[in-house]
Amino acid sequence: MIVVSIDIGSTWTKGVAFALRPDNGLRLLSQGSHPTTVQDLSIGFETVLHSLVLPGEDYELCYSSSAKGGLAVAAVGLVPELTAEMAKVTACSSGARLTQSFAYELSEEDIDTLKKSAPDIILLSGGSDGGNVFYPARNAEKIAGANIACSVVYAGNRSAREQVAKALQSQDVVYAENVLPTLDTPNPEPARSAIREIFLSKITSGKGLDRIIDRTGSEPCPTPYALYEFCRSLATHAPELGEFVLIDMGGATTDVYSYHEELPVPGIVRRGLPEPTIKRTVEGDLGMRVSAVSALEAAGQMSPLPESDSGALVSYVEKLTSAPEHLAVTPQERRFDALLAGANIATSLMRHAGRAHEVATADGVVTVQTGRDLTSVKTMIGTGGYLSHSADFDPRTHLSEVGIDKFGKRILVSQCKSYLRDPANLLPLLANVSRKHPAAAAIAAVRLLSGDIAANPQPLPKAACAL
Fold first, then answer.
1. Which of 129, 165, 321, 388 is deepest in the core (most CB within 10 A)?
2. Strand residues in 103-242 grouped as ranges (E)
3. Radius of gyration from C-alpha coordinates of the chain
4. How does residue 462 score in pLDDT terms, banded at 50, 70 and 90?
């Protein structure tokens, strides 16, 4: 059977055709790509599809999309470390691009920010079940009064639902179970499902995705959501990878996924929400091209830039932001790209990981930890345009600069013993395949990362490569 996977990205629409073998292996048949046609995504999609299969040929299709900025979600909660944090975690694990996060009562400035950012969805939470009613009801009133043209997912205190429904009666609202019904019981799945349903039923319209659905009978998946679920599948079907961190770095954003299980450790007191086994954070200000200015600032914060290079580096970043399609040509430009990439990865991991510090108590000194401790994670996986095509780049050299934050707390980032590169930038496409064939996709990913397949962005002859 032929399995076709296509990912509609912000810049490129990429696709690949696999043969699914009887032994559950995948054989790479061909690859194709086309610039994403932003006015009508179906044009680029169809061009890639026709480059992968012959007319009348039977195939199974799976595809994803992050085009036009992907799925934009703003999260609103009550306490920053609790329901507001849970709303952020839920939005990120749904494959969304988090536009903002707000806690307590929305101010006029917050409402103005929401209006300007125009999210596709507002995820409104707040209060454990039976807890605070005032803030979720008050924030619902303010959202209704702002007349923001977006859907709302309410996943807060169920005791406030009646008041929220009354306030949002003229708004498009989907109700889900509380993301944090009790303080030690995160419950993101119902809200994740609600966000996905809105993505499929409303957000795909008007971008050409609805035409693809009508034509193929198949529904898309947000690209980050597919990768998030693929991390879960890798943990199940590829245990030889162990716990890992996966970096997906693009021109505008850097996504960090981690598979890690937090276990109780004697002498360590944990604060905040229980950490999920699979976690995604997305840094919308860190990327290799559109977000190169922020990457440059991050590089300067990590270590002083050489004076001899600073002028040329600033000029290079200006070039990148005005022409994001530019590829490094000279040795100096390639060195600058490596510096920006290292700063992106180190900064993204610092934001993704937790913190620890020591506190003196009557019973002695104890370690207080917030967030996840990734220091025991041994493997880092890199995917995305720059990481996939830069065989000489090793992000681990930049992690040695990560140590203590500005508050004197240890940053719980791993130095990672091994770095596995996705040389053909196939992981997002295998993530799509994983939705129907999880074991086959996971086995193929391990072979890909171990170097059993060479990177080759050109169309391949059929039966060219086994995964």
1. 388
2. 121-124, 151-154, 173-175, 221-222
3. 23
4. very low
> Which of 191, 189, 148, 188 is CA-nearest to residue 168?
148
Biggest CA-to-CA distance, the chain:
76
What is the spatial distance between Cα 286 and Cα 252, in angstroms, rounded to a whole number?
6
For residues 411 and 403, the answer to whether their CB atoms sit within 8 Å is yes
Neighbours of 385 (CB within 10 A): 19
Distance of CA 406 to the CA centre of its chain: 26
**Which amino acid, residue 455?**
A
C-alpha dist (Å) from residue 93 to 141, 277, 331: 27, 11, 38
Q: Are strands 26-35 and 96-102 parallel, antiparallel or unpaired?
A: unpaired
Tens of pLDDT, residue by residue over 25-57, are: 899 999 999 998 988 999 999 999 999 999 999
Amino acid at residue number 467: L
pTM (2 d.p.): 0.88
CB 416 within 8 A of CB 245: yes
d(CA 114, CA 75): 10
